[in-house]
Fold F-box domain-containing protein.
Amino acid sequence: MAGGWADLPIDLLVEIANRIDVLKDFIVFTCVCTSWKIAAPKDKFDVFSPQVPLLMLADKDNDYREYYSLSKKKVSSIFLPEARGRECCPSEGWLCTMEDSTGDMNLLHALSRIEIQLPSRDDLMASNGLGDDQVLWDWTVKAVLSANPSITSDYILVVMYHANINRLAFWRPGDLNWTNINISVDRMGDIMDMNYYKGKFYYVTVGGEFWVFEVPGPTTPKLKPTVESQLLYWCEDDIFRHHSVQYYLVELSGALSFVIRYACQFEDHRYKTYKFEVFEVDLVKGELKMEPIKTLGNLAVFLGSNASCSIESSKFIGIKPNYIYFTDDWHEKFRCLDGAGRDMGAYNFEDGKIESIYSDLSLSHICPPAWIMPFRIM
């Protein structure tokens, strides 16, 4: 061949790319060089779509992870040994992973295998003044990125983890250790969910308290040794008196919204979701609008152990408007059952009916199914 691989005709490259049926091979194809990346069809495997979540199926204790596409109704398998046997909390197309036996933690791109090393679990506990002998049990509940590390190095990672009680800590590129975030544990109870919205992190507690904190980015000198959270509003409505509920914070049409997930609990410790309610958080007045939102309109919402998100359904094939897609995230019950992953579905916000999103059983004690946002691979 007279020229190099980069000199192959674009029509030939497109033809080759269209014949690839395995996701991992497609990723390799896009990484050969710029011309091959440009030739790759933008809708193949949903890899180049910045807003269509893939369902990352449960860990099978091998070196491969399976992803189910709602658009294509098929499963693709990729080689991802870095996620084997690890807790995985998705955000912005990345996984915050933790290995239970060693405590090693990483940020792992869910499709390309790119890794960013994080301080260990020991450092995470030390940020709160804890040692191994002081923690009865621990696990990572949720990880939220302020921005996609594939696009910028100016991002913040905040983890919500359970070490006897729920706690918060953050890390920024260049930091040697985790930094504790001060929260009023004694008065507020467990944190139920957390999300990033317009430059700040928000979280809601089991007792109906809405809190906010701001972390300086890695390019900004850290002025204080810790970050303080501030109480926005304490809602004493009866909706916070229910049992077997989960709370979520998600951005809907530019506004921060609050979602309640109701479930039935059975004698064998299993849960079954049966209803959702959505409210808008008024950040100007510091109040929570208690009148339920009647419709999500064209939006589809994705909830679970991932950082909650929404998309405009009309832009994508296979995504239904006015639906809430949810995965099993009853963390406190993971170890009591044969693995989490049963309580998944798509909730029709108009008539309250729940549809199946994945026909097979996908269970794991360590890493059950979760939504992944497959952002463009750099």
Observations:
- Residues 1-41 form one domain.
- Helices lie at 10-18, 23-30, 34-39, 121-126, 185-188.
- The longest helix spans residues 10-18.
- The chain has a mean pLDDT of 83.
